[in-house]
């Protein structure tokens, strides 16, 4: 989940005793796009549930659980990337541009044992927090509890254990985690997951997948050398551009088709018209070879999607009530 392959030698003597800042960078605390599903969940709730004090408490607990699980995931990912050389290959002469300091093992601000201890501790704490969230929830559908457990297990094994991101499942994971982390808290608060909520969860989950595809485009050589299987490493650059176009088109079809099928209200595609324009823009820019710029637009499109859906759901529920 990085940008452009080049070559750089890993530091020969990592600095020991990394401080809190190094651990914060290891945890990638500045990456918050998956957590934006929680404001969306809150906006999707009925007003009586939305403003209940217990709702805020549960969403806060889920947020903490998500942050800690992501810290475990990216911690293991950094260890694996450091060991197989993919992080060193994907961060190079443009290290300042690509913020090499965000990879503390390659930058030498943490050692591998320190990163491993951090990742295992985060795994234990994150699992406990998710278990506490399920136990404290007003509703506990079995499918939601199972989905929460699957999300935790898949996150921890993204680049560790089963190494699912190395086995050809990275793209599925990127969209699946966003869907899961939207549906689970909604179900824990309401006991169900209506069709329109599922549509919005998929639209949300597609955001990290789409900007992840641009990362994979830039990382194809380094990932291929490290044995990581993604669509970008298996096909030509031209075919991968077609794949990105197909994924983008599928999202646009979901937005328009769900309203046409009566699953989503009429306002759903109308509200997301700016997002559709942004999606088409990053697609054209990506086809021109400006991968980093296309990725930035894709990230902004994801955040705009959340902002528009939060506002629209609040307005719609206000009218309905």
TrEMBL record:
It is a multi-pass membrane protein. Its EC number is 2.5.1.-, 2.5.1.74. Pathway: Quinol/quinone metabolism; menaquinone biosynthesis. InterPro entries: UbiA_prenyltransferase, UbiA_sf, UBIAD1. It is found in: Membrane. The chain crosses the membrane at residues 31-49, 55-76, 118-136, 142-160, 172-189, 195-214, 243-260, 266-285, 297-320. Keywords: Membrane, Menaquinone biosynthesis, Transferase, Transmembrane, Transmembrane helix. The keyword Isomerase does not apply. One of its GO terms (molecular function) is 1,4-dihydroxy-2-naphthoate polyprenyltransferase activity. This is 1,4-dihydroxy-2-naphthoate octaprenyltransferase. It comes from Actinomadura algeriensis. The lineage of its organism: Bacteria, Bacillati, Actinomycetota, Actinomycetes, Streptosporangiales.
């Amino acid at each position: 989940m990085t940008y452009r392959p080049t070559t750089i030698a890993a530091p020969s003597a990592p600095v020991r005793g990394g401080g809190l800042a190094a651990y914060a960078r290891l945890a990638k605390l500045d990456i918050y796009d998956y957590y934006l599903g929680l404001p969306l969940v809150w906006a999707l709730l009925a007003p009586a549930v939305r403003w209940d004090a217990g709702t805020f408490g549960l969403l806060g607990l889920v947020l903490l659980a998500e942050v800690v699980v992501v810290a475990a995931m990216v911690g293991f990912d950094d260890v694996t990337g450091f060991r197989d050389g993919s992080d060193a290959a994907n961060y190079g002469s443009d290290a300042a541009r690509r913020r090499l300091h965000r990879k503390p093992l390659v930058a030498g601000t943490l050692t591998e044992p320190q990163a491993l201890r951090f990742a295992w501790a985060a795994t234990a704490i994150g699992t406990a927090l998710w278990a506490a969230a399920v136990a404290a929830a007003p509703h506990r559908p079995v499918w939601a509890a199972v989905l929460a457990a699957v999300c935790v297990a898949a996150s921890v094994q993204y680049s560790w254990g089963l190494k699912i991101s190395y086995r050809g499942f990275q793209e599925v994971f990127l969209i699946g985690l966003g869907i899961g982390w939207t549906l689970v808290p909604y179900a824990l608060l309401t006991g169900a997951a209506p069709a329109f909520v599922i549509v919005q969860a998929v639209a949300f989950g597609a955001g990290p997948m789409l900007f992840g595809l641009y990362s994979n485009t830039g990382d194809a050589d380094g990932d291929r050398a490290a044995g990581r299987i993604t669509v970008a490493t298996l096909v030509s650059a031209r075919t991968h551009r077609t794949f990105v176009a197909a994924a983008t088109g599928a999202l646009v079809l979901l937005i328009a088709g769900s309203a046409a099928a009566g699953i989503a209200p009429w306002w759903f595609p109308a509200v997301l018209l700016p997002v559709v324009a942004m999606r088409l823009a990053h697609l054209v820019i990506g086809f021109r070879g400006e991968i980093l710029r296309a990725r930035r637009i894709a990230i902004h499109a994801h955040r705009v999607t959340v902002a528009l859906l939060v506002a629209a759901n609040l307005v719609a529920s206000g009218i309905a009530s």
